Prior knowledge:
The chain is 48% helix and 0% strand. By secondary structure, it is an all-alpha fold. It has a domain at 3-142. The relative contact order is 0.15. This is YkgJ family cysteine cluster protein. Pfam families: CxxCxxCC (PF03692). InterPro entries: Puta_zinc/iron-chelating_dom.
Amino acid sequence: MHFYPMRDSLNALYTQPPPVPCQGCGQCCVSPTCTVVEFVVACEYLLENFSKENTEKILLAQPKIHPNYEGNLFCKFQDKETLRCIIHPARTMACRLFGLPVIDELDLNNIENCRKMNIASLPKVSPEKLKAWLSLLMEMNEPLAPYYQEPYWVAGFNIECWLAVYFDPLLDDEVFGILKKLLREELDLRFLEEKFIDKTELKDKTGKILLLYEIIRSGDTQTALSLIDQIRRSYPLTGAYYFEELQKLQNLITSHQ
């Protein structure tokens, strides 16, 4: 599967959401959950517009948990002085959709929205249009790796997790191995190899996910519920990854008790 046409398709998709009258306060800039195509395009922009030294400072900066948005980190791509996005032309779909009233209409799980903009001034987007955009994004990513499939349900990650997939040598089985190979073919971040330290513990989290499925199959519901709670409370740097899936598994277990 050639990656280049997907860059063009993604850039075309990026032009479709209407701009919102952002006040530029920077308080909502969290590490976006994005697909692999979006991550590659964002990092390519970074590499093309910043020196290796600055790229290192940006990507290897200590991740910080955002106090106002559960399951989110501060974004690495936000300039700490101006509060502006340093990759704005290549920002992800999540960033482009933020602020649109349709986000509230759909009541999407784990998705916050801006409360500072004047609702009357915001562009109107129908739920059908938003779903169409998200479907196009999914279609771009589906041919590249197993997309949103059991047990890991990978559709997107925050920036920290994508970096873990790229660099962590232990994170190489099943879908993660496929994504790692793709990332390392498309992006040359190897100059960061010796300095990168994974803090997400994504590998450990995926191991717990596999264990959870084994426990559920064994019928030990109490241990399964306890492990669900443990996974939910641990691994804050993985962002909202698996939040929704844990809730679905919990609901499934409790409905059969």
